[in-house]
Amino acid sequence: MKVALIHYHLRTGGVTRVLENQSASLSAAGIDHLILSSTDFSTSGISPSVPAATIPALDYLSKTSLTPTNLYQDLLAACQRQFGSAPDLWHLHNHSLGKNILFPGLLKLLAESQTPLILQPHDFAEDNRPANYPLLADNTIYPLAPQIHYAFINNRDRQLLTKAGLPPQQTHPLPNPVQLRFPPESRPPAPQTHNLILYPIRGIRRKNLGEILLLAALAPADTTFAITLAPENPTWQPIHDRWQHLAEQLQLPILFNVADRIPPSPGLPSTYQSWRNAASHIITTSIAEGFGLAFLEPAALKKPLLGRDLPEIT
């Protein structure tokens, strides 16, 4: 069996981790597969052992001279190079997010090919992303056919789409994998001497950075907060930067965009893993989550978690 997994990119984030874990599962099962994304694999955040190919037109696109047929042919050509044939299964992530103007047409071509297709939504344009919706309007973005199945990362989404008309027998819960064991040698060798509270996210709007400033203003004097990543999307960068400038003006104990830039303490690497391991607590001030890795990974790390209950997720 040959499986092609498709996503916009392989930049650091939750979906990239899901793809890497799916690849590991497929490899363990002896299933030949290929990840197709716009990211140059040499700069991606996943292991070099993961089979991947770069298709630039998969990236976020609101305007392009390309057609869905051009993109479909590029995907087929990459599969031909990897497998010697078209795949037996397409697995498309976040097809209904409204981030690529070619995706509705690509979806139509994939459905018409009659090759089995799995559509796995993680996020939705309708969920606080109104600017994405014009790229989806007047298109069929939830096609129905016997060979098309849907995988959902939580039961909330599955129930909503089933009520909207998806056949229940073609929808499946597929929770995100969580790494339960971390190398003991990567943990800090000595007990914490102060509170380092880590927010392991990219600082986009729905991650609610303003609340971190409030908590930092109220926290005990021996507490430092750290946010791992800044946004890559230029739309969200100014909002992130305004919070950072305000934190500096108020002299709050918050570090921004720390991963791969500065170490948590002298002598330690600046990697995300280093910050995660050095943290005394993990925090989430998010007001909306798709799956909720932020609630599960701290338990695996045996780190206390500070955050609000999101009942539809928890």
Tell me what you see in this structure.
This protein is α/β, with parallel strands linked by helices and 314 residues long. Helices cover 28% and strands 18% of the residues. Strands 3-2-1-4-5-6-7 form a seven-stranded parallel beta sheet, with helices on both faces. Helix 2 (68-83) packs across helix 3. The chain starts with a strand and ends in a 7-residue tail after the last strand. 32% of the residues are buried.
Question: Summed up, what is this model?
Answer:
The chain is of the alpha/beta class.
| Count of runs of 4 or more consecutive helical residues | 8
Strand order, largest beta sheet: 3-2-1-4-5-6-7
Structural class comes to alpha/beta
Estimate the global geometry from the Cα principal axes: globular
Q: If you average the pLDDT, what whole number results?
A: 89
- The termini sit apart by 35 Å
Gyration radius from CA atoms, angstroms: 21 Å
| Strand/helix succession | EHEEHEHEEHEEHEHEHEHE
Question: What is the number of strand segments?
Answer: 12
Helix percent band: 25-40%
Largest β-sheet summary? 7 strands, parallel
Beta-strand fraction estimate: 15-25%
- List segments where confidence is low: pLDDT < 50 over at least 5 consecutive residues: none
